[in-house]
């Protein structure tokens, strides 16, 4: 009986630790996304080549994050979308940004988690799964 209690306690603590680690991991990527977005929105480049390299590095970082940790990537991208939305609202067409910035911003604005299926996708899934009765 005591062994069951000890195993239960150890498993519970282990699961709590994992949940806590995932929560702090998500918090890290939320903060990182806000920090990155702020830098992207305020940075001034000395040349077009520098800016091009900067955006290539940013895209590479996001692609690597997506392959290494999909959940962290989703948290990061959702927070980026939120940060860019807030910036667009506060900017109110008063800010001047480059074409590279607007190209990347469009990716953040268009980003959605794949958790939410469109009505068309759900309709197609339901239609395919429906049996025929003769």
Question: What's the helix and strand layout?
Answer:
Blueprint: H1 2-42, H2 48-68, H3 70-91, H4 99-110, H5 119-129
Helix pairs in contact: 1-3, 2-3, 3-4
Strand percentage lies at: under 5%
Helix content: over 70%
Mean pLDDT score: 76
Give Rg in angstroms: 22 Å
Structural class: mainly alpha
Descriptive report:
The chain has helices at residues 2-42, 48-68, 70-91, 99-110, 119-129. Helix 3 crosses helix 4 (99-110). It starts with a helix and ends in a 5-residue tail after the last helix. The protein has one domain. It is built from 5 helices and no strands. With 134 residues, the protein is mainly α.
Task: Give a short summary of the structure.
This protein is mostly helical and 134 residues long.
Descriptors:
5 helices; mainly alpha
């Amino acid at each position: 009986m005591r062994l069951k209690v000890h195993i239960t306690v150890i498993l519970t603590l282990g699961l709590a630790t994992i949940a806590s680690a995932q929560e702090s991991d998500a918090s890290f990527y939320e903060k990182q996304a806000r920090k990155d977005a702020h830098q992207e929105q305020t940075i001034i480049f000395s040349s077009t080549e520098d800016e091009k390299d900067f955006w290539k590095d940013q895209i590479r970082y996001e692609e690597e994050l997506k392959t290494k940790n999909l959940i962290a990537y989703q948290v990061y991208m959702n927070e980026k979308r939120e940060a860019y939305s807030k910036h667009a609202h506060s900017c109110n067409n008063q800010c001047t940004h480059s074409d590279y910035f607007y190209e990347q911003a469009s990716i953040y604005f268009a980003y959605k988690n794949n958790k939410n299926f469109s009505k068309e996708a759900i309709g197609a899934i339901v239609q395919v799964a429906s049996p025929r009765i003769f």
